[in-house]
Amino acid sequence: MIEPIDLTDTLGEGWSVLLARKPLAEMLEVLGVPGAEQRATDLHEATERAVAGGGESESILLLGRSLDHGWSMVLEIDGSSGFLGHEWEVLEQLSEQGVSCAAMYLPAEQEVSYSTGGECWARFDPLVSDLDGENTDAAAEALQRAGFDLTEMGENDAEELRVLSAAQRTAVAVRALTGVEWHEGLFTDPWTGGLAPAELA
Question: How is residue 148 annotated by DSSP?
Fold first, then answer.
């Protein structure tokens, strides 16, 4: 297995990555950024806004890009009031005719949320290999093929998983569920994004 990226090296210890098989402009609109307000931006601007807001900001700068095979990605690096991409309302809307997946990393909590066609919803803790949800058979099979043990709280995870950091295990879970491989180039400037309300309307 190719060693997965550890996004804490690049983004620090508070971020969320949302993936969906939707055009980027549509994803951003679902998250609260109107098309007319979508613009070029970068990690420096997002970081400055997060620091200046100190958890009190009424808006969040979202960073997005289009990927291969119809996927788009939106990054949040200010989780002081939660991550928009982890709202089930967002995941369900983005997966109505496809797939959506959100990966969240905080120092004390890591979670991968997954939805397909309004039929399956799943939450997965990549640190202890705990899967919860409805109609999760396909998700469970994908995670088990990647080496996660879903029966003993990760005690029998594949050896190559046991040596990985929580952030790396998160990347492996996302790849298992979506086929999207995170790499450094996906998380470098420039981005397309805009300001979204810190809370969904």
Answer: -
- Report the alpha-carbon angle 194-116-72, nearest 5: 30
How sure is the predictor about 198, in pLDDT bands with cuts at 50, 70 and 90? confident
Of 69, 81, 77, the residue nearest 12 (C-alpha): 77
Tokens for 163?
């040596």
Tokens (6 digits) for 72: 């788009």
Q: Which of 15, 114, 16, 20 is nearest to 72 (CA)?
A: 20
Q: Which whole number is the average pLDDT over 168-187?
A: 96
Cα(167)–Cα(8) distance, rounded to whole angstroms? 7
CA distance linking residue 20 with residue 23, whole number of Å: 8
14 contacts 106 by C-beta, under 8 angstroms = yes
Region 89-98: mean pLDDT is 90
Predicted confidence at residue 2, as pLDDT, reads: 77
Give the phi and the psi of residue 188 in degrees, each rounded to 5.
Answer: -115, 160
